[in-house]
Amino acid sequence: MSTDSSRPHTRNRRRFGLPALIAVLALTLAAAGIVAATARRAVTVPEGAVAPRGEVRGSEPVRVRFSHEMARESVEAHFHITPDVPGDFNWIDGRTLIFTPRRALPAGQTYTVTIDAGARAASSGATLDTPITWRFTVRPPRVVALAPASSPVQQIVLIDPQSGAREPLTDAEYGVLDYAVSPTGRAIAYSERTADGGANLWVLDLLTGARGPITDCVAAVCSAPAWSPDGRQIAYQRAELDPARGSGTGPARAWIVDLDTLQPRLLFEDAQALGVSPTWSPDGARVAAFDATIPGIRVRDLGGGPDLRIESLEGASGAFAPDGARLLVPVLVRGALGESFYTQLELVDLARRERTRLSGEIDAPVEDVAGVWSPDGASLVLLRRYLDARFTPGRQIYRMDAATGEVEPLVVDPAYTHSVVSWDAAGARLVFQRFPVDRPDADPSVWTLDLASGALAEVLPDAFVPAWVP
Description:
This protein is mostly beta strands. 10% of the residues lie in helices and 44% in strands. It has a domain at 50-138: Sandwich (Immunoglobulin-like), CATH 2.60.40.3710.
């Protein structure tokens, strides 16, 4: 009886329990599907997690932080910046991407950064379903220079040409010897004098203010820093102090220091080779330095090729063209003024080892001391002095079209001589040093030229060796 009465009860449980179980399972699967779908769509970029925005300096890297740890290759493939900018990706952690342009960005340009939908998380299957876009505009550049020129001790000073604001960047007890701005404009390498008459190289990060030594030049002067195009190495010259000469030094040799390891090495395999004022090619494939034992310019092929020697008596290492395949070199000539020697310029094709005269025929009545390439390589700024009816006591600033050789005057003032000229990243402005030729007791000053308007402005008196920074 008890057994029979239990059977209907069991049948009822099976009859009503199975549909309920199926319903619960269906709801569970649906919920799981919703969760999975949500997980796939869950990548977000929180408000304020992208930079830079608005008006910014041309040295600032692009930064974005995601809500998930991301598949790096997927994010990089979905990353775009317009106009296109060559640069390098770096991840400071699984969620934070840094994109660093390889060169300082030109003033006035507006950039749009986009991360397309579809960028994937590293492990959850989540994706970025909505593209992220933001914009920024590059502010006008600033100027750095050594000042005061009238003092035995100089520091690096930052000047805003628009506002006139000035800010000292160094406070070295014995002063700064020279410096170089990094390709991105974010950092400055400088040679700081030491108590024993030597000098060490330091690097200053302009965004964070952090600084530190990168060489340990005991009883030596390390100077003339030159950044590699990727900003990871610095070439420089090192001259040992010579006690027999009092405060003098022996001959300088060229070295390279790796900024990650701070391990220095000689530039040239021949330890006896000298090297003054090293300079990198824009493609990073070569380094040139002046070697008085040639005498001339020694070019090191970092890819393992043989060194190239270019005869020159001028003591300068030359200026690489933006393509890295040609080198502008000064040469000593005797022409228009009979027995007088003066400097002109030649362009050397490094692959063909062919030399082309840039200053015209050898008897052309011009003295070209130096040339500086525009960022796009379309023209050069020349420090020129005509030796005919256009004669001026000092060097003036001219622009030469690289394709046609046509020359136009930019700054011609017989009362001054000009030097240390450089272009800004946009190729729109020049900064340079000028000195009055009839006042030997005067101090140099720093000026700028707007190439579009022709506006000439003094930005810092009693200063020298200027350069642009974003």
